[in-house]
Amino acid sequence: MEKEELKKAIYQLIEQSAGKKKYKQADVIKHFRQQGIPDADTKAAIRELIDAGDLIYTYFGGSYIELGEKRKGT
Amino acid sequence: MTKKYDTPLLDELEKGPFPSFVTEIKKAAAKSAMAADELGQLEKSFRDKVTYWKHGGIVGVRGYGGGVIGRYSQLADKFPGVAHFHTVRVNQTSGLFYTSETMKFFCDLWDKYGSGLTNFHGSTGDIILLGTVTENLEPLATVLSMNGFDLGGSGSAMRTPSCCVGPARCEWSMIDTLDITYDLTQEFQDELHRPQFPYKFKIKTVGCPVDCNASIARADLSIIGTWKGPIAIDQDKVKDYAKKGMNIQEEIVNMCPGKCITWDGNTLNINNADCLHCMHCITKLAGALKPTPPFGAVILIGAKAPFVIGATLSWVIVPFMELKPPYQELKDMIRNMWDWWNEYGKNRERIGELIIRRGMREFLEVCGLEPTPELVREPRNDPFWFWKEEDFEKKPWEEFLK
After folding, report:
1. To probe the interface with A, which of B196, B197, B339, B349 has the most A CB atoms within 10 Å?
2. N vs C: which end of chain B shows fewer Cβ within 10 Å?
3. Which residues of A touch B56 (CB under 8 A)?
């Protein structure tokens, strides 16, 4: 899977689970590992999404990944 | 600024011989509305016996998952100055050495961007800047970065590594705690700023078993300097201690947990093979006894205060590791344990809890460590080895019988 495609898939996973399930970074990595995506690729894609503000880290008794500022703007 | 709230309960905390945080907040309240409202809310909390803080949420600096602890008042209408009162953690210097210029920089910085209240240092080891609003976080992080500082760790991440003063000021330091801490901080930037673990992970490094940083009780990974050579004894100095009134038998020999010291009134002997390296004798007879090389560190895992089973001290996993830059053996071991913890750890489960749940044997296997006698905490209670089918196929006893 191309990096941009992977980033889109990660974003969609977080978007679709918003309000239902909170994902930790390790959960996202395990999710895409089942689709044959190397852990390092998923980690790098998450990093780019976070740096761009598409996703953010949140803290609710533990650290999670959730939709970032861009979603708020739309 | 005139006094904003009456605080009879907090005033009680100003009495007595000790420094009072109330006095300090009152000083800050003279010029900061945020600090004044903080006093008001705290007084109400004391009166009602309820906290009015809620913490967590989505506040932070872009790209960072830690370093800012979002804090909000539930009584924002009554105390608007503390509607937002976020805490910022800043990565402290190794060994907590600062110039006066740096301290002034932090004071000025926090007068400008926050409440003016600081905490040097929090129990995590970080510089704690107390009370700011969300819109100040990005500019604050930029100014910190321009001046060579960075945010510390919070949340489910590696927390800011901390250490004792080490060789900078301590004669007993057997490892360069400052360099190890700095090196690990640089190496694991991603793990520090991007929460990716089931829960927090703390690394604390101390130069000797005196453990001034209490790493054995407070760190998931404790790195404690130790020695392998015999303890050097200056008999004349030992006799000086005795002449000056020290009861060597009572205070040194009888206190030795390894029962490896003898004293005939003239000569002190140590059976180094039985020494448990607690350093009691070395610290009591400062100058007379001295550890000798080779120096290195004992690596321990898994301390945490509120385990289900009660407070837990770290558990030895490597009795002696020679720690020389670039500390590759240590870094590889840390990465292996993180991979295992990430794979099997439940949400909010510390690595020590996972070891208790899945067993030290499995942990040692993933870390590539061999069980050794030093790992045994309780005789007959720590099964590190279970025979597998393939072990029997190798017939290890044949070599033994030869």
Report:
1. B196
2. C
3. 58-61
Alpha-carbon torsion angle B183, B184, B188, B194, nearest 10: -120
Q: What is the pLDDT of residue A69?
A: 67
| A58 interfaces chain B, CB cutoff of 8 Å | yes
Of chain A, the end-to-end C-alpha distance in Å amounts to 27
Q: Which string of b and e fits B268-277 if b means at least 16 CB within 10 Å? A: bebeeeebeb
The yes-or-no verdict on residue B365 having pLDDT over 60 is yes
- Contact, B225 vs B174, CB < 8 A? yes
Q: Is B153 on the interface with A (CB under 8 A)?
A: no
Q: Which domains does chain B have, with CATH numbers?
A: 8-146 (3.30.70.2500), 162-221+298-390 (3.30.413.10), 232-290 (3.30.70.20)
List Cβ neighbours of B103 (8 Å cut-off, separation of 6 or more): none
- CA distances from residue A48 to B5, B63, B137, B358, B377 in whole angstroms, order as listed: 48, 9, 21, 34, 45
In this complex, do A26 and B197 lie within 8 Å of one another by their Cβ atoms?
yes
The residue of chain A with its CA nearest to that of B350 is: A62
Q: Which of B63, B194, B199 sits opposite A62 (nearest CB)?
A: B199
So what's the ipTM on this one? 0.90
pLDDT of B334 > 80? The answer is yes
Can you give the residue range of the structural domain that contains A21? 3-73
A48 touches B at CB < 8 Å: no
Q: Please compute the mean of the pLDDT values over residues B135-150 and round it to a whole number.
A: 96
Q: Which chain A positions have a beta carbon within 8 Å of B155's beta carbon?
A: 57, 59, 62-63
- The chain-wide mean pLDDT, for chain B, equals 94
Give the separation between CA B323 and CA B342, rounded to whole angstroms: 26
Share of chain B above pLDDT 70, in %: 98
What mean pLDDT is predicted for residues A11-36?
95
pLDDT tens track for B215-273? 999 999 999 999 999 999 999 999 999 999 999 999 999 999 999 999 999 999 999 99
What is the predicted pLDDT for the residue at B60? 86
- Interface with B, mutate which of A57, A67, A72 (most B CBs under 10 A): A57
Q: How far apart are CA B39 and CA B21, in angstroms?
A: 11
Q: Determine which of A27-41, A60-74, B14-28, B85-99 has the lowest per-residue pLDDT on average.
A: A60-74
Among all residues of chain B, which has the CA nearest to that of A24?
A: B196
